[in-house]
Specification:
The chain is mainly alpha-helical and 241 residues long. It has a single domain, classed as Glycosyltransferase. The chain is built from eight helices and nine strands.
Length: 241
């Protein structure tokens, strides 16, 4: 509506084109105005900052931009298509993000150089919370994956790839079942926020990502997230963006 669709397309394309195996199928976390990875978060392909929901976030954003603009390059450009496929296949496998592996995965993975470099603990953070290192995966990671799988399935359906679309509609459904099943704490009516370093379900935060990505079940569960959000706002506490 602001006439910025071309700029948004450019930004998404830059992130898509910089996915690579040397970065374990991550892209760049930040790209500066000189079209380079921002030095504050990138030294080389073995040493950089990255939050793992990001690939799925970009994939979801591409699908939403396709819906809003009708720009078929989101559906046909080989750069975008490569990013989508690598994200839902190689990226998921490399970082053990499949529903069968995500509960038991280690927190720190794929750090090639060893030692105590400042990026060692941030090259693949398994959610968007950068303040607490004491978990192996958080619920916003799963929520972003759900949105990414759903977007990829929609793209593949539009491209006439019925088999691939069906597979990823099913994967999105399996993530949604995991979040609304095992990750729902019936005893207090809230979602668990993360899996801790002992691989046990832990914590009950705001979990706003469940609403943003549309993975919370309607009714009691989504209402519980919304209620927690409104209560926090009423107390004047910061909730992020």
């Amino acid at each position: 509506m602001l006439g910025l669709a071309g700029y948004t397309h450019n930004m998404l394309h830059k992130f898509a084109e910089n996915i690579s195996e040397l970065k374990d199928w991550c892209s760049y976390w930040e790209i500066n105005r000189e079209n380079r990875p921002a030095p504050v978060d990138y030294l080389d392909d073995a040493h950089f900052w990255y939050n793992l929901p990001a690939n799925f976030d970009v994939l979801d954003a591409c699908y939403r931009m396709y819906l809003w603009t009708g720009d078929k390059t989101y559906l046909t450009d080989p750069v975008f298509l490569n990013f989508y496929r690598r994200t839902v296949h190689e990226y998921v496998n490399r970082w053990q993000l499949g529903t069968q592996d995500i509960i038991s995965r280690p927190r720190i993975m794929n750090f090639n150089a060893g030692g105590n470099h400042r990026f060692q603990k941030s090259r693949g953070i398994p959610n968007y919370d950068e303040s607490d290192p004491n978990f192996v995966v958080a619920i916003d990671q799963l929520a972003a994956q759900y949105a990414g799988y759903s977007a990829y399935a929609q793209f593949e359906q539009l491209r006439g790839e019925a088999g691939e679309a069906q597979q990823f509609f099913a994967r999105a459904k399996s993530v949604k079942l995991l979040v609304n099943g095992a990750r729902w704490d019936k005893s207090i009516g809230k979602y668990y926020s993360r899996v801790n370093l002992e691989h046990r379900l832990d914590g009950h935060g705001l979990n706003m990502a469940l609403l943003y990505y549309g993975i919370a079940e309607g009714g009691v569960k989504s209402a519980a997230v919304l209620e927690a959000l409104l209560k926090t706002i009423s107390y004047g506490k910061p909730i992020g963006i």
